[in-house]
Amino acid sequence: MVEKRVQPLARDAMAYVLAGGRGSRLKELTDRRAKPAVYFGGKTRIIDFALSNALNSGIRRIGVATQYKAHSLIRHMQRGWNFFRPERNESFDILPASQRVSETQWYEGTADAVYQNIDIIEDYGVEYMVILAGDHVYKMDYEYMLQQHVDSGADVTIGCLEVPRMEAVGFGVMHVDTTDRIIDFVEKPADPPGIPGNPDFALASMGIYVFHTKFLIDALRRDAADPNSSKDFGKDIIPHIVKNGKAVAHRFAQSCVRSDFEHEPYWRDVGTIDAYWQANIDLTAVVPELDIYDKSWPIWTYAEISPPAKFVHDDESRRGSATSSVVAGDCIISGATLHRSLLFTGVRANSYSKLDGAVVLPSVKIGRHAQLSNVVIDHGVIIPEGLIVGEDPVLDAKRFRRSEGGICLITQPMIDKLGM
Asked: What distance in Å separates the CA atoms of residue 411 and residue 395, rounded to the nearest whole number?
């Protein structure tokens, strides 16, 4: 890994987070909130990872473009990300789709979500733009990517994951030469191109792009004037640069932030119920693949004021206990048993209930004698006494959203239909 410059480039950069996506594969979890606003890891939201990466990298100007069901996301950012100070040359802008270009035009694509705010970007006069997706879980120091961008003389530098070649069929894939210059960009190819010297792996786009600001603005204006464009970075902007300019791949392993306990670069798209459940449950391991306890790279979020977690009752059949679990503040485990579960703030688990492989979002109340295995329970759900989930797949699928991997998503409307 190259050493950082004395004067960080991040100080002259703006991070622009694209957080307007619906995340429809998360089903009912995104009925009331955009994917970046979905809870993750006990107390954070998914978007906190991209925002924390930018802040920890030294970037002090951040914009977040929102669109789909943005209230929960905007409220979270207003509460948790309101500490930027203009007098320190810092800024944090929430940029909802607001018909600023046309009275009938919302954000039409990822590129359009930046294009419609060009005047705001120009006002800050930053030298570099770091375009980020707001819906992935990872730790990354963008300063290294900025340095590579400047040193290589690229028009665009694209963050890439090294993945087994045939696992790349669902990504945008970079075909690179031996210098990591991108010679072709293929969207979800059936036969992904391998990496030179490592043909069993492919370079998949992370949706992270670095530009010189002036170049990006020129590219966005050219694209906006094209009536045939879909106004999207992956479909329009990037392929045009690959063909007519210089696009370079940046490998995530070069800038991934790892503590002493993290052995492999960690990046997750938690865009399905199964992936979301697994990434949360992974945090309950003795040594999880993602270290959220690393104080040198904190994940900033809304620091809710809450009392400590509490475990009560110590009878043989009614003991408040948790093994291999993560329990947030303001939880009361009252004679309930938890194993390999993750509980967000304010959960109440009542006597004789048992949770195994449960991801429980904030303010859930779990009734007595409930037995819940391999579940995701949405915010504020009241689980009735004696409910059993995870033992009868056919019955579970009739009552709840059961994923291909056997995980049941439980929401309050689903509970209400049971009439219990």
From this structure: 16
Q: Is there a binding annotation on residue 152?
A: no
Contact 221, 103 (CB under 8 A): no
Q: Which of 376, 229, 301, 273 is nearest to 24 (CA)?
A: 273
Residue 374 backbone phi and psi in degrees, to 5: 55, 65
Q: Is the pLDDT of residue 104 over 80?
A: no
Using the predicted structure, report yes or no on whether residue 266 has a pLDDT greater than 80. Answer: yes
Structure tokens at 239: 């392929």
What average pLDDT does range 282-306 have in this prediction? 96
> What is the structure's pLDDT at 1?
52
Determine whether the annotation assigns residue 90 to a binding site: no
Determine whether the annotation assigns residue 24 to a binding site: no
Q: Which CATH superfamily is domain 310-417 in?
A: Hexapeptide repeat proteins (2.160.10.10)
> Given a cut of 60, is residue 2 above it in pLDDT?
no
How far, rounded to the nearest angstrom, does the alpha carbon of residue 197 sit from its chain's CA centroid? 31
Has 4 been labeled as part of a binding site?
A: no
Distance separating alpha carbons of residues 417 and 420, to the nearest angstrom: 8
Amino acid at 105: Q
For 17, the 3-state DSSP assignment is strand
Tokens describing residue 38: 């979905």
pLDDT digits (tens, 9 = 90+) for 203-256: 999 999 999 999 999 999 999 999 999 999 999 999 999 999 999 999 999 999
Quote the pLDDT of residue 63. Answer: 97
Domain range list for the chain: 9-284, 310-417
Say which residue the tokens 């990517």 belong to: 145
What pLDDT is attached to residue 187? 84
CATH of segment(s) 9-284: 3.90.550.10
Q: Pairing between strand 267-268 and 137-138?
A: antiparallel
Q: Can you name the residues that pair with 96 across neighbouring β-strands?
A: 66
Q: Is 91 annotated as a binding residue?
A: no
DSSP, residue by residue, 258-303: --TT--S--EE---SHHHHHHHHHHTTSSS-SS-TT-TTS------
Question: Which of 170, 131, 144 minimizes the C-alpha distance to 17?
Answer: 131
Q: Identify the band that residue 180 occupies on the pLDDT scale cut at 50, 70 and 90.
A: very high
